[in-house]
Design goal:
The chain has 482 residues and is an alpha+beta fold. The chain is built from ten helices and 24 strands. Residues 161-175 have a biased composition (Basic and acidic residues).
Length: 482
């Protein structure tokens, strides 16, 4: 996930670069053709810009650029063909409906960087993650080899030698300079105020070649609002409000939807530690999982449904865990994010038609490695619980040859898995979330002991050692007349 983040981050950075270029050269000479030429001379793409809108009375503070496309470089870009002479638009890996930027230059006179708005509208990004960890966007941001039909001067031996010399000189200066500490906002002599920075109606598609999965992020709205940061007064000016809404769909190798999460997230962040000015490593979010989100084919549920020997021995049938489970209502909860680790700060319950899933406080997922450790509880559907318990009763009848009521013995064996007349299965799942280790959270007496000899021995009037492994089972059998 970390590598996916790098790929997406690079794409967004490229779009912002286009916007910055437009602001630096703001004026009547800025045209789509001018911007395309600047972009294609800087990075290894074929670019397209539909239009540039600059306010006549606000030329130094606001600009809109529409129809930005970044595609793999081709001969048209290599030759530097003017935009107006190109016969068609390229099919882009990165597309943007509109970039809208408004900056207050007057605020700089008071040592304040004030950005009223930086909004990317309807961006579309198509990212493919290769098995070696690379992605299809990396090549777009390299220096182009050919510009205007000739070898790029920036890649000439003289230019490269000059660049290398400058880098070596910079390295020497860094080596001779006293060691610097980590970045602190207190070292920046300017306050930062921003009204709105974000993405609206974004779409990101990530294809995972190694697993065959596809991750689709749709209706992406990311807003950083009311940004107020002043390193000289972090007690009063150290705030960022965040809203993040998105529909996230995971499609498996079989081309079927494995999960869909309809998310609404908001938080009031304190971006820097007040005392030191260092970046705050922890962020707390309020998350709402919307109704109609669903999960299907979760590996931990598959293990519980049919692969844990203890459940099979007890005769519990939990096939509903393998079916699609849709959320019946919105569920809100808090999580903490720190260095790629998402930790649950409370204990939400997610009600579905087939079961209610409870997550224990402190459960976590590390998004950069897919490692997780989660303690959960599964409260099974009431009707299905009755059917499953009836299956256990049938096994007991077979073991006892129909003598007596099996319910008392069943309660001794699986009674700690029943809550409010429903099966309740606490469990722990850990390791790689795609292939997790799953453990039951309670002890479970096994019917193997009974079927293998304990019941038969009791029927014969003998108390076997195996029966003693089931607490209270001996008394239950005596009560049944064995």
């Amino acid at each position: 996930m970390k590598k996916i983040g790098y790929g997406i981050g690079a794409a967004i950075a490229a779009i912002l670069l286009i916007v910055i270029i437009a602001l630096v050269f703001a004026g009547s000479f800025i045209t789509p053709s001018f911007l395309v030429k600047q972009i294609e001379s800087s990075i290894n793409v074929r670019a397209h810009v539909e239009s540039v809108n600059i306010s006549l009375f606000n030329v130094l503070s606001g600009i809109e650029i529409e129809g930005i496309i970044l595609a793999p470089r081709d001969e048209v870009a290599n030759k530097g063909t003017p935009l107006e002479e190109r016969k068609s638009k390229p099919k882009g890996l990165i597309q943007l409906g509109k970039a809208d930027v408004k900056i207050s230059f007057l605020a700089l006179l008071t040592k304040t960087l004030k950005v009223n708005k930086i909004v990317l509208k309807k961006p579309e990004i198509s990212l493919t993650m290769n098995e070696d960890g690379g992605n299809n966007l990396t090549s777009l941001f390299k220096t182009p080899k050919i510009v205007d039909g000739e070898k790029n001067p920036a890649l000439s031996p003289e230019a490269l030698a000059e660049k290398k010399a400058a880098e070596e000189e910079e390295a020497k200066e860094k080596a001779s300079a006293p060691p610097s500490g980590p970045f602190s906002i207190k070292d920046i002599p300017i306050a930062i105020k921003m009204g709105l920075v974000g993405i609206q109606e974004g779409t990101i598609q990530v294809n995972m070649r190694k697993t065959g999965q596809q991750i689709q992020i749709q209706k992406l709205d990311l807003e950083l609002k009311d940004i107020d940061i002043d390193g000289s007064d972090l007690e009063s000016h150290n705030n960022v409000n965040v809203n993040f809404d998105a529909d996230v769909t995971i499609i498996g190798r079989n081309k079927k939807e494995a999960a869909k999460f309809l998310l609404e997230t908001e938080g009031k962040l304190t971006p820097f530690v007040v005392k030191t000015g260092l970046v705050n490593p922890k962020v707390i979010y309020e998350v709402t999982m919307k109704e109609d989100s669903f999960l299907s084919g979760f590996a931990a549920f598959d293990a519980i449904a049919g692969e844990l020997p203890a459940l099979n021995q007890a005769g519990l049938k939990l096939d509903k865990l393998k079916e699609k489970a849709e959320l019946k209502k919105d569920v809100s909860f808090k999580v903490e994010y720190s260095n790629g680790k998402v930790t649950f700060l409370d204990e939400p319950t997610f009600p579905t038609k087939n079961y209610d899933l409870q997550i224990t406080k402190g459960s976590y997922i590390i998004t950069t490695t897919n490692y997780h450790e989660m303690r959960m509880g599964m409260l099974y559907d009431e009707d299905e619980s009755k059917k499953s318990l009836a299956s256990v009763d049938e096994k007991i009848k077979q073991a006892t040859k129909g003598q007596g009521d099996p319910k008392a013995l069943r309660n001794k064996i699986v009674g700690n898995l029943v809550k409010d007349e429903r099966l309740f299965i606490p469990f722990r799942t850990y390791g790689d979330i795609r292939n997790p280790n799953v453990e039951l959270g309670v002890g479970l007496g096994t019917l193997t002991d009974l079927i293998g000899g304990a019941v038969k021995e009791v029927i014969k009037g003998k108390a076997g050692d195996a029966l003693k492994k089931i607490p209270g089972a001996g008394d239950a059998l005596k009560g049944l007349g064995f």
